[in-house]
Fold this protein.
Amino acid sequence: MKITILGSGTSTGVPEIGCKCPVCTSSDPRDNRLRCSGLIETEGLRILIDCGPDFREQMIRLNDFKPLDGVLITHEHYDHVGGLDDLRPFCRFRDVPVYAEQYTAERLRQRIPYCFAEHLYPGVPRITLEEIVPGSPFIIGNPEGNKVEVTPLRVMHGKLPILGYRIGKMAWITDMLTMPGAEYDLLQGLDVLVMNALRPQPHNTHQNLKEALDNAQRIGAGETYFIHMSHHMGLHADAERLLPPHVHFAYDGMRISL
């Protein structure tokens, strides 16, 4: 399995518009963070996790134009779904299935109804909404006969229920503040955990750094990579040195193999 961090930043991205702090003016490319997204390549499949407003730029940076076999949506917020229309080039290969729980799927149909109309006009992305249920594994496959099992996980983004995902020995969790106790059982035996850590200071809907470190220790993955950071986390080079062994700050373009 190969995991590419397409975006490691929070909803405003880094640099944040108008900010002149040391992070937002840093020349270290690891301090330039697009909105949060990842590409998972495993078992002959390519799976996108979230498709935010920076998706087009992320794909241009990646410079690896191949079919997408599925898109996993964690929740409805714009920084995680604002790029769905930019899936259009990938529909030249074939229709792209988008997986989301019912609540999120209903809101996507309301926001971009032209993508899900009965009669699509030319140029509209050919994407299908597949509704999934937390705790119920499902299969993503492709015409070549490749397939992989995905398990959606319930996590809480403040008071909003959203999804994380486990694929094999990797799990991706973003925008979490808390998680029901039973979900920890679904995260045993991970080699890699990708999880959100917004900033050192507390926040009412996201884990801060201490909460993320505590959860990383509780889950006990072989390696943990933090995503969804704001500029308040500090310079990558400085902040990274403060982390314990086997815990890392991810950065845009990072590739993780397991």
